[in-house]
TrEMBL record:
One MF annotation (Gene Ontology) recorded for this entry: hydrolase activity, acting on carbon-nitrogen (but not peptide) bonds
Entry superkingdom: Bacteria
Domain Amidohydrolase-related: from-to ranges: 69-427
Species assigned in the record: Olivibacter domesticus
Protein name per Swiss-Prot or TrEMBL: Imidazolonepropionase
Length: 449
């Protein structure tokens, strides 16, 4: 009796044990049953059999998983906070929507409320605000008088350097560059300058430059699949885009991407929704109750342009989406690291924060990836892009950002929506709390708050 008591007294005290769970191996999709996950100070300190963990640790909190599946929390690697200061509260509500849908990390791809986003990021990191971890670019680099709001307008090398100085003062996590009015020579200079400062870059690709040229200048990730599709069209081609695309030529370009460790975020969902508005206007989406009036108002510019096109133009949009999405397995087979991102947030019509990542994963699978490959795009490749090694698996020394699922997402990607609990920094949010996040956001929108 004494020895058993002494052993119990010596058992390390930890914060949380998740017992009787099935751990998903994110490298190969295998499942290990009868496991317990031990968590302390926001980190996983042990993953072992139920009996081993029970005998080794004492926890302040226990979750009996009852055979449910545990995997790393989801990442949305392309979203946008924005819409001006009048929408700050609506943007801040995105944090609850993401957590309610098992998204524990997000990458903000620039807009016009960057100072507030940086503030939220720092508050979350300092445990002063509840939400997914935020990685942000701050304002993006563009040319003079672009269509985008809240950008850093640059047209000379000196202006590029000054803009990067300001971004580093904001302590941004990476730099975004787009090509609406940015001159090609300054675009290339900006990529080189970002690399010289030891920062990461994400960008659109100007039509006047080749994929190899922007990679050689230092690009780290391509945003939107259409740019990779265009890269598969030899410059000498003159026919329609669909007939120009050359799979063998594209493979050469994609291998160059892979060899230079250039990632891509396809953002299938935004393209799919806009290209299929003739089939679904989304005006009756139940999820709209979670989106504030100011954010909804930013949807109109894309909707108005898309809804009045001809039947023939709609058909062409469908075909274009199909042609572009089909290259996803080609990128995967050539070794390009694909990241999962939605383009959710402000401006991009009916691409919703939270639920959007589940829809994106489903579209990836529909385009030809396996469920495991789609999940890896979200939870493995995403932190790898940022050079973060403490994410990507349920294993010792990894961050305790996890989701507990009722069903196996390796068998059916839609199982990512069957969320029992979300764990962020070792803090548990059960189904009741997650539903309350959603209800509180909906109630605030009804009240006009």
């Amino acid at each position: 009796m004494f020895s058993l008591y002494a052993l119990a007294q010596q058992a390390p005290s930890i914060d949380l044990i998740i017992s009787n769970c099935k751990v998903i191996n994110m490298a190969d999709g295998s499942i290990t049953q009868g496991q317990s996950v031990a968590i302390k100070n926001g980190k996983i300190i042990d993953v072992h059999s139920d009996k081993y963990i029970k005998n080794k640790y004492q926890a302040a909190q226990y979750i009996q998983a009852e055979g449910r599946y545990v995997m790393p929390g989801l990442w949305d690697m392309h979203m946008h906070f924005g819409g001006g200061d009048s929408t700050l509260h609506e943007n801040k509500n995105f944090l609850a929507l993401y957590l309610a849908h098992g998204v524990t990390s997000i990458r903000d791809m620039a807009a016009d409320i960057s100072k507030s986003v940086v503030k939220w990021r720092d508050e979350i990191n300092n445990d002063q605000l509840t939400g997914p971890r935020i990685f942000t670019s701050g304002p993006k680099l563009e040319g003079y008088k672009p269509i985008w709001k809240g950008v850093l307008q640059v047209g000379t090398p000196e202006e590029v350097e000054s803009a990067l100085d300001s971004l580093q003062k904001l302590n941004v996590d990476f730099v975004k560059i787009t090509e609406n009015t940015l001159k090609p020579d300054i675009y290339l200079y900006a990529l080189k300058a970002v690399k010289a400062r030891g920062l990461r870059s994400s960008a659109h690709i100007p039509s006047s430059l080749t994929l190899n040229e922007v990679i050689d200048a230092g690009l780290n990730s391509v945003e939107h699949l259409g740019y990779a599709y265009n890269a598969g069209i030899p410059k000498a081609a003159t026919a329609s885009k669909a007939s120009q695309f050359n799979a063998e030529y594209a493979k050469q370009q994609y291998r160059y991407m892979a060899n230079h460790h250039v990632f891509i975020t396809p953002t299938l969902l935004g393209s799919y929704i806009i290209s299929h508005l003739d089939e679904d206007s989304h005006t009756n989406d139940a999820y709209l109750k979670y989106i504030g009036r100011g954010i909804k108002n930013t949807y109109s510019w894309r909707v108005d342009r898309a809804k009045n096109i001809s039947a023939e133009a709609s058909k062409q949009r469908h075909e274009n989406y199909d042609n572009v999405s089909k290259i996803l397995p080609l990128l995967q087979s050539e070794g390009v690291k694909i990241m999962a991102g939605t383009d959710a947030g402000y401006l991009n019509s009916f691409v919703y924060p939270g639920i959007g990542i589940h829809q994106e994963l489903a579209l990836m699978v529909k385009a030809g990836l396996s469920p495991l490959q789609a999940l890896q795009a979200s939870v493995v490749n995403s932190p790898a892009f940022l050079g973060l090694t403490e994410y990507g698996s349920v294993a010792k020394d990894k961050r305790a950002d996890l989701i507990l699922l009722d069903q196996n997402p390796i068998e059916n990607i839609e199982a990512t929506q069957k969320i029992h609990s979300v764990i962020v920094k070792g803090v548990v949010f059960d189904r009741r709390q997650l539903d309350k996040f959603l209800k509180d956001v909906a109630d605030q929108n009804v009240s006009g708050l």
